[in-house]
Amino acid sequence: MYIGAVTKQTGASAKAVRLYETLGLLGQVQRKGAYRYYSAAQLNQVMLIRQAQQLGFRLAELNKVLGLDADNPDWPALLQHLADKQVAVQVEIKRLQQLEQQLQLAVQDITQCASLVPLPAVTACA
């Protein structure tokens, strides 16, 4: 299929698909005349790349597990990357929860201090 069909089916832009090709993430793309012609496996690869990007993976990370053989990704390495990403997300969640607690304490402290400060008198306008 031509690049237009790939973009329509995957939601990736033509520029993104060409970038994936340039980075070696799609393997060798065939040509029909002057046009690129993508296989069903390459279409699936584009969908996998987009899904991985939505999960927070960078193309450089994907190149390590997908770029070697586009028709046969390194599934164990990809699974390990997913596990590593899960751990990183869990660590970030804990960090953000701690930050939330600190913010909550700061709000309480400021609220307490603000209640001790007398408000300026409001004067009525004539």
Helix-strand layout with pairing:
Layout lengths: L2 H8 L3 H9 L7 E3 L2 E3 L2 H15 L4 H8 L8 H42 L10
Antiparallel strand pairs: 1-2
Give descriptors for this structure:
65% helix; single chain; elongated; two-stranded antiparallel ribbon; mainly alpha; 126 residues; Multidrug-efflux Transporter Regulator, Chain: A, Domain 2; 2 strands
What does this structure look like?
With 126 residues, the chain is mostly helical. The chain has 5 helices and 2 strands, in the order ααββααα. The chain has helices at 3-10, 14-22, 40-54, 59-66, 75-116; strands at residues 30-32, 35-37. Strands 1-2 form a two-stranded antiparallel ribbon. Helix 4 packs antiparallel against helix 5. It is elongated and about 85 Å long. The protein starts with a helix and ends in a 10-residue tail after the last helix. The model has no long low-confidence stretch (mean pLDDT 87).
